[in-house]
Design brief:
Two copies of one chain form a homodimer. Chain A is an alpha/beta fold. In chain A, helix 1 packs across helix 2 and helix 10 crosses helix 11. The model of chain A has no long low-confidence stretch (mean pLDDT 92). Chains A and B meet through helix 4, helix 5, strand 2, helix 6 and helix 11 of A and helix 4, helix 5, strand 2, helix 6 and helix 11 of B. The first copy, chain A, binds a DNA duplex (30 and 30 nucleotides) through helix 2 and helix 4.
Amino acid sequence: MKSESTTIKDIARFLNISASTVSRALNNHHEVSYKTRQAVLEAAKKLDYQPNALAIGLVKNQTNTIGVLMPDITQPFYSSAISGIEEVAVEKGYYVIICQSDESYHKEVSLVNMLNKHRVDGLIICTATTTDDYHHLQIVNLNIPLVQFDRVVKHIDSHKVVSNDYQGAYEAVKHLLECGCRRIAHIAGPEQLSVSKNRRQGYLDALRAANLAIDEQYIPTCTLEKEHMQLCTEQLLDLPIPPDAIFTVNDPTALEAMQVIKRKKLVIPDDVAVVGFDDQFLASYLNPALTTVSQPSFAMGRATAELLIGQIESKRKENEKSTFTTKVFDTQLIVRNSSGKRKDE
Amino acid sequence: MKSESTTIKDIARFLNISASTVSRALNNHHEVSYKTRQAVLEAAKKLDYQPNALAIGLVKNQTNTIGVLMPDITQPFYSSAISGIEEVAVEKGYYVIICQSDESYHKEVSLVNMLNKHRVDGLIICTATTTDDYHHLQIVNLNIPLVQFDRVVKHIDSHKVVSNDYQGAYEAVKHLLECGCRRIAHIAGPEQLSVSKNRRQGYLDALRAANLAIDEQYIPTCTLEKEHMQLCTEQLLDLPIPPDAIFTVNDPTALEAMQVIKRKKLVIPDDVAVVGFDDQFLASYLNPALTTVSQPSFAMGRATAELLIGQIESKRKENEKSTFTTKVFDTQLIVRNSSGKRKDE
DNA sequence: ATTTTTACCGGAAACGTATCCGGTATTCAA
DNA sequence: TTGAATACCGGATACGTTTCCGGTAAAAAT
């Protein structure tokens, strides 16, 4: 199945000139006359010439491709970020290869290696929950530009894009306090994730600022598996003195929490208020609508891609050692009915 | 920035053998002795050899890459399908490049051309709502294997993967009839989309089977823009004799419809029942939970990738002209409270 | 002991493109 | 009119790999 596509040599033969001249003409090189350039362009169109990206990549040692490795592209937060990444990528002439780790460390390592082998020009990664060894990132970071998204590893030297998790959590808890809640629980995420840690810290500091005692019983750590989200919620509600509010590490957890609360015939927000984190698009459609901390995932995706491509192209120009930036996006508290002051729809 | 990665020649030099032998050893060619093969493998590991996919692709005229073009990767139906595609792709050693058309015909054409230029080994496509010219698909279909997903164009000769839209719609309407509804409206999708057409037909036939008259006023065609979804719903509710049920072409439309219905202080399902199509993951979290037709999007994604890769690899073996199959996935009606027989949670 | 087979290996060409280097013809300055 | 500068082009090489072709040495068959 010879693919029979026309090459630069075909054009050369057609015009009785050399391949190198054709190449120069197609690349707007100045050392080619106007006349032959026009002839080449015309012939290229006529013969339906499509440059072979593989061959170009081989000599230029680049693929115009960036790899994106996310835990789960099904989650709105990630798919929306990917959408932003894709948008700037095509703007700048790059392709994006997506992979998902399914929150598995082993898949993550193997996919990073695959992408490395494929000679992607750069890599965007959001580590899996189970990842707590970062050699594979270190290694890839030496070869190709890397930018970390959302879940970041501090000691790895690269661009980073995150949202202000600490501030978001702090404000969410402050809001609950203002609603009159005094026994605020927090279903936290896995400890090795930067986002979990920062949100937890925001929660703690908000309580401290209000001179409230911290009760570790109120701060279960969730694996972020569906069943465990439910279990955490049940255990909170079964405490001798159950909480009057639950702030969850993300929206999916808030969803499950709400289901459990309803199943126990408790009323949201009267008996238990709920606040999530993400503002995934369904949050506003729930009943009661979910109060949550909004992250600009699409814009974050765009910024990530811009940083990455910027680094790729500056690297090509053999720039001085680039200094890495961490882009922090402000979050915004969206107050809806799951935490309101007992005014129903 | 010479990337300094070790090549096959480095290994050859290291072992004082020829590059061709190294290549053969790495590819388990039989014409190489056990001893040298071991030596090569060891040296490859020691020197951290990573085969250059570009070079391999150049000589083999393949990229091990498949392109996926979807209207909007943010929608759960698509992201879940992509997830399935990605899964079998890595299983079989392929990379997946994703692009989104944003429902724009022009973007679609330009992206198809980009992917073609990048020499992807195959292409999965779900056309945009605004696409009603299919030359670009015809052309690409001549060059590389193509499989159409969900929204398919009948007269283009390729594998196709769809769900049984007709049957799903038929059963949804039948269910509404059994609930006692008699004035069932249908918010339909754009007419050029195969899915819209089939679901509309299922709706019509179910009504006819029940000897109910068809009222075109009850069948608005929606562009699938959010505002238009709302407008269609409002117009239905404002009719002199408003419907007692609305069957929507997909879940996002059902969502908006429910919001509008609630805003009018009507009760679901007592005043108006609602049934959607997709079973996007949020459907069960709504209040009332949404009755909808479930499509196995993940499995559909898997099947699509399997068909495509199958075609790619059979093409390599210069098979006889392959005959194309259309894989139809059965849908399943998930009855929840938005259509129940007025028993509340 | 001679021929044939087998096992193994190296050299060279090829994939499609970019680019370095050198060369010719033209134009300009002196 | 001569020398140098300029404009343009072709040939060769390189990128990293696979694969065809031919060749040598050992093993097997005669």
